[in-house]
Amino acid sequence: MVDFKGAHYPKSVVLFAVFFYLRYPVSYRDLEEIMEERGVDVDHATLNRWVVKYSLSIAAKAQAKKRPTAISWRMDETYIKVKGKWMYHYRAVDRDGQTLDFMLSERRDKSAARRFFRRAIGTNGIPDRIVIDKSGANLAGLEAVNVILKVTGTGQTIKILQVKYLNNILEQDQRCIKRITRRMLGFKAFHSASATLEGIEAAHMIRKGQFDNNGMTAFQQFAQLAA
After folding, report:
1. What range(s) does the Integrase catalytic domain occupy (predicted)?
2. Model confidence, pTM
């Protein structure tokens, strides 16, 4: 259960604000005005604290509750500006476009790619194949994971494909994330950027129908992840 102790506002109000920010392309100033129109007097700094504080827990619940995904993956990274510098948001979806995992990294190298692949496998299991771009770092990271799989004696390694057109579905999916982050005009700190991106991805998973919703609205599904 996500702990809302100390929020000084009803849980429903906090969740509405957090969901709205993660789901739609608004700034904190925009959201402050939206909340004021609904009779809630809360400043943009408080809204920022809510998003950073609750996004990680909600995203973790989303990963645990999402429907099973396919064993054919597509992986790439997109650029996110943090403290005025470009950093790398690693992402993977399956062949149907369902979100698998995501991770913000300060670097785009073998170590970061290997860390992302290990995280994604830990969450989703070992895939049959992964499509990547022509990045040597991503290739080296995935080859390192295959070495680990051989050494651990699982009897299974991952087929690596570097075919650009097969990643079209992921490139289309990236646009939805960029549409939300573009309005944010960059992040001030790595930890807040990482937490916010986790929340954006969770809201995006709801949009793509990755949960058993039982007729619930998108916001009701989001609230359930915080239950």
Report:
1. 64-226
2. 0.93
